[in-house]
Amino acid sequence: MKASAFSDAQKAFILKQGADGVPVAEICRRAGISQATYFNWKRKYDGLLPTEMKRLKQLEDENGRLRKLVADLSLEREMLQDVIRRKL
Question: Which InterPro entries match (predicted)?
């Protein structure tokens, strides 16, 4: 996945402008982003501070690593059970 060209503080500032009543089209034009990007950020980060945004990203990364680990362990377990079944 491509890293964002915007820092968490920049994203928070852009979203705050929208909360302050600046039209979305104007915000997107100034920031050089599409309206879809703005609304994706709003859905994901609305109301979060930059530090909270960073923590959210860390938790999502950790969750992804843990999911992969569980999938790998489940596959190994299935393979071992298959070997045991063949021996019996």
Answer: Homeodomain-like_sf, Transposase_8, Transposase_8_domain
Q: Is the pLDDT of residue 2 over 80?
A: no
pLDDT, position 5: 87
CATH fold of the domain at 8-87: Arc Repressor Mutant, subunit A (1.10.10)
Query: Do the Cβ atoms of 10 and 51 come closer than 8 Å?
Result: no
As a residue count, the chain comes to 88
Structure confidence at residue 88 (pLDDT): 76
24 Cβ partners below 8 Å, 6+ apart?
18, 35, 38, 39
Q: What does the buried/exposed string (b/e) look like for 20-32 if buried means 16 or more CB atoms within 10 Å of the residue's CB? A: eeeeeeebbeebe
